[in-house]
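Run log, item B.
One chain of 516 residues. Sequence copied directly from the ordering sheet:
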Amino acid sequence: MASAFPGDYARRTMKWGWAGLLCACLAGVASAAPAPEPSDAEERTPEQATRQLLRHPALRGARVGVSIVDLASGQPLYEREPRRLMVPASNLKLLVGAAALHQWGPTHRFETPVLVESGPDANGVIDGPLWIVGSGDPSLVSESLWKLAEEIRLLGVREILGGIAVDGSHFDRLRTHPDWEPLTRRAYEAPTSAFAVNYSSFRIEVSGSIEAGGKARLQTAPRVSYFRTQSDALTLPTGDVMELELGRLPDGTGERVVVRGVFPFGDEPRTFWRSVELPELYAASVLRAQLESQGVRVRGPIRFGPAPAGARELLRFEGKPLARIVQLLNKWSNNFVAEQLTKLLGAERDGGPARWETGRLALADYLAGIGVGRDQAVISDGSGLSARNRISPAALVAVLRAGATDPASGPEFLASLPLGGLDGTLEDRMQEVTQPFRGKTGHLRHVSSLTGILPGVDGRALVFSVLVNGARGGPLDVDAALDAFVASLLRVPPAPPPSRDAAHPAEAEGQSASGD
């Protein structure tokens, strides 16, 4: 695997200047923040901040790994079991985002070829199917397919006689990761696919009748023929028990969505997000609806298989820039995006169908390229949903440092992280923190994690990672402890100059990590 930078010269000359630029940006924002209260201005050492974290009652009985380093130099400021392998939850998405930006660059767009076997003729008729060759683009949503339908109409197409055909051979047939069993229909366990839309998920909205005793109203978004809806729920003054039932239709043409029970009379509508079971059929159904909304008539069924060798390209549809995709990945912790990118990295590495097996190898290659030993991570999936994932705090710090200081994509990677108290998964946290903080959250059962970047009191940026496994406290209490830890780090005094022989924690040799 190549270096994280274009060459050794670039590594030596660029990382200091780039890190300095990041520090300056962070310091500039910090200078505009209100001055802290006197009680908050007391400086803390990284060790004091960590000891305060460990004393929090919510972390009683937990295994806690901590790594705090200077961004520019990589000099460790404080560490506690930094090389211990622990469950990272969604902090693993940092690795996927950094590896994807390094592989393709922030302006890369995944392209979806659209093919035809013949036509369109002078009347705008395609005598055969419209072929969609899935590329695994994670960014496609209903609006994207409306734009694709518009492009097809602008090419003069007025009617498609052979329906829509989907070539999904770029991905393997394993839709969901085996470690996720038993599966639910929650949107965060959505299936992967070479051709997918809306992150392989959809919205269900249930609202009450205008009269007590009437049936509740059930709607889906998008509204397409893939869904068959049925409401058996009543709107009543008393009672509040509803059940959603989802399942594949017997003829394989879509899914049924049924609501049963009681909807409270006078209540506001309720929204549920669920995954689809047949992602390629769902995406093709959305495209069909968008084509018909553009006045392009589609006859014939939706079918699947390899595109004919003789089919010609009608157009090549470009998705969103990768920088936007990685922002979806990290700011909103989108599991579907993480798994699509992981599989696509595997296909880029080895060719052939996109698979988790080769995706894991591609992520391991990226870690090796930034100096992280293969004993510092055990990768199962890309989203962090698998409880078999293991990575060390020092490795996550190395990933964040490499991603943020990469001269080709550092600003885009940094901008993908949620802002404390302002957006993404940190919007409702750290409301009292008045200085800029960017970080990635992670949660599983009895697992909480936080990896981020923030300015020290001297304006020099710090990078840290905290992994908490097995805490007895509830997730909100553990989050509160981690937020207080960040507030303490914002009062860390300047770091001493690094020694010439100081090793980056991820590059140190002779230290083995023991996982759970």
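Observations after the first pass:
- The longest strand covers residues 227-236.
- The mean pLDDT is 89.
Flagged for discussion on Thursday.
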